[in-house]
Amino acid sequence: MDLVPLSGKLTSLAGRYAKTLFDLSAESKEITSVAIQFADFCNFIKSHENLHSLIFSPALSRQEHAAVFNELSQKLNLSRILTNFISILAENRRLNFIFNIQGIFQELVDHNESLSHAEVVSAIPLTTSQQEKISQILSLHLSGKLAINYKTNPAHLGGLLVRIGNQIIDLTLANQLNHLANAMKGNA
């Protein structure tokens, strides 16, 4: 697997942990299930304020952190790989990196599955047929699978703003009016 696009992230501490979890998951052919469980686990932590503050509490010992996460792993029925991984994070006092690790791990999973993410922002909500048409157009220009997140922003006035990775295609009316205003200032 070519990881050049992720090479910078993989050299960070969180990236090394994420790559290790990815390799373990791939070896046991559990990449998809571990990715789903890890995302659900991180969302669970974020949605429970007390648990979130407990993770970052330096007052707990390594053993107490490990005990909390072992209990959570059992209650959430996490896989053995993810349970062991989280225990290692707790033992090594790396729980504060868990959200970064999960993000990089998800990027590795997406890269492995040739999945691209796109965000389409419109001034008003798009109909299902409009969303399907946009999906068809984007699929023609991208290889692999595509996951599109649709949002609205009335400030765009009309048109679309499309983000794919670090590429932005701004076809909004607000942007076109801004260009027109700048052009008129240059001719005055």
Highlighted features:
188 residues; elongated; single chain
Structure summarized in a few sentences:
The chain is an alpha+beta fold and 188 residues long.
Description:
There is one protein chain. The chain is of the alpha+beta class. It is 60% helix and 13% strand. Strands 2-1-3-4 form a four-stranded mixed beta sheet. The mean pLDDT is 82.
Percent range for β-strand residues: 5-15%
| Through-space gap between termini | 55 Å
Strand order of the largest sheet: 2-1-3-4
Can you say what the CATH homologous superfamily of the largest domain is? N-terminal domain of the delta subunit of the F1F0-ATP synthase
What is the number of E strands? 4
General shape: elongated
- Give the topology string: H per helix, E per strand: HHHHHHHEHEEEH
What characterizes the major β-sheet? 4 strands, mixed
Low-confidence stretches: none
Total domains: 2
CATH class category name of the largest domain: Mainly Alpha
Mean pLDDT: 82
Count of DSSP-assigned helices: 9
CATH topology of the largest domain: Peroxidase, domain 1
What is the helical fraction, as a range of percent? 55-70%
CATH structural architecture of the largest domain = Orthogonal Bundle
| Helix-strand category | alpha+beta
Please give the structural blueprint.
Blueprint: H1 7-10, H2 13-27, H3 31-47, H4 49-55, H5 62-75, H6 80-91, H7 98-112, E1 115-122, H8 128-141, E2 145-152, E3 160-164, E4 167-170, H9 173-187
Parallel strand pairs: 1-2
Antiparallel strand pairs: 1-3, 3-4
Helix pairs in contact: 2-7, 3-7, 5-6
